[in-house]
Amino acid sequence: MNSEIAPAHRVSKKKRGSNDINTFHSLFVLFSHFMFSMYYHRKRTSEFHEKGDIRMCGIIGYVGEKVAMPVLLDGLKRLEYRGYDSAGIAVVEDGCMVTFRRTGKIAGLEALCQENPTLSRWGIGHTRWATHGVPSEKKAHPHLDCRQRIAVVHNGIIENYRQLRKELEDIGHVFLSETDSEVVAHLLEGGGAPLQRIQKTVIKLQGSYALCILFQEEPDTLYGVRMFNPLVLGVGENENFLASDIPAFLDKTRKVVFLDDGDITRITPNSWEIVDFYGKQKTQATVVQIPWDPLTAEKGGYKHFMLKEIHEQPQALEDTLLGRWDLVNGRVRFDELEGFALGTVERIVIIACGTACHAGMIGKYMIEQLARVPVEVDYASEFRYRDPLIDEKTLVLCISQSGETADTLAAARLARERQAMVLSICNGMGTTLTRISDRTLYTRAGVEIGVASTKAFSCQLAVLFLLSLYLAQQRTTIGNQLLSTHIQSLLALPRQMNDLLKNSATIHELARQYYLYHDFLYLGRGVCYPLALEGALKLKEVSYLHAEGLSAGEMKHGPIALIEPDVISVVLLGKGIAGAKTLGNIEEIKARKGKVIVVSHPDHWGEIPLVEQVITITDTNKYLVPLLMIIPLQLFAYYVALEKGSDVDQPRNLAKSVTVE
Length: 661
Ligand code: M6R
Prior knowledge:
By secondary structure, the chain is α/β, with parallel strands linked by helices. It has 20 helices and 26 strands.
């Protein structure tokens, strides 16, 4: 089959008048394409979201003197943290394309490959994590062209895939999946050398992509393309690699070339070259020696997963917001909730455990104030045994990172038995909670490995805020103007979080000053009260220090008796009246010679009484304050634990997922 579609921006060399004009024209076209793609990337339209195939995935490619299959499987295992709902590999054996694909973890694919070993020395692999939609073997990569001679693995989003697919189908291409990625394999069909076909293809693609491509007709050769999605080239001895992340091959080579957006690379066992989308050789590509040991690399150079995950929050938040808002019409959209009878809901009961429950407690403020629906929050372990009063007019909202927490599952099952509507906010794809629930709103935090939950918390808060706005717009308890302002505040958060993360060194210094103390009180009002609980939980989990979260207003009813010079109070000053009232607590603590660290919103407080330290966050609306304040609190817990030398990622007595009661 021949792909007859003319490339949208093809530049005919024969028609060019002079080299200068050619170069200028090429640059102009490349620039236009770049700007266009940038625009689309930034815009991230909800069109793609409807298809429900937004992913975090891992890519590996190998060409060299070893048998490819074990190398690919090993690379995929090292990338499994990026995705684990399905995986696949493609190799060329005796001149024929062979693919293996399996849903579930890499172990399933490995078993399949062991039953069907091949001796091929070049191939590509992919592990996929769909944050949306049901995983299936059809959706698993690699995807093939009509004649099954070209295999493609892809990370990212082809935003104009619908239009491209229609054009391809109109000229006879047959698609086997609903994915956007498959269009790339079909676009690559046709005449010309593989590199030229890649160039013709990429200029038609809008969106973000990292691609690894294998052509059956060109032995011992692989191609990689990078556009707004990570792809690195590993340079070995008689072997070369492509991967979405360095850990995939770091035990085999530490020499890496970081590809740039707009690069196409061609690798063979003994050579690699990089060209741009118009075939111009890249001359400044440099090979970098990576100093990390393989384990550190999986942590992206961070010492611990917890620190890595704290730093991943801006990206996780962006992913979670993707396609769920429409600024032009000032609306929040949740396609997952279409046809779900939320209009009949009279009461919401939020159930969760640990950090997820703290997110739920903050969610109560958001939902009640914005959507004017009464909300109750309960620990799942309490809810399941308290014979709760719920019925078909109750929406039970279950929040869980893992989707496998035993108490939360039991509570969700009980809610169903009593005819309540069950909605979950969950990070784990296809997990038990999502199967029990009527509907699920996924957080797209990516795999969270550190036992202390960090990025899942901020993503849960983001979804809760969106849900509050969604309910508010349904119940017309919010005007369009305020709705857009709130959406804008939400969209500003990733950048604001990044700014706070740049301040890590100050928090580390603070931790050095306080890690030898034994008692910490975290105080807050309004949304800062559950945040105080979360700040204290983070510290106790990883540093084993005594830390208590308290409602600031409750201090005088008892806890103030604890104050003495060796007790550290971390006071969270939120916005408005809640923040103003908490100022009084600082005076009371100082009068009793307690030490005070303040985390403050930049409101007009006037004088903050003399305290040990003030950390200021950037301005945001009162509901979103916790999403920014949590950053210094998480960092403080992390650095205190680091100074104390505790096992940050696997603290004593704790498990990442509590699957037993
Ligand atoms: O997976 P889940 O969100 O359901 O887990 C709930 C709690 O077990 C979890 O948040 C736990 O409290 C964390 N270790 C907190 O950092």
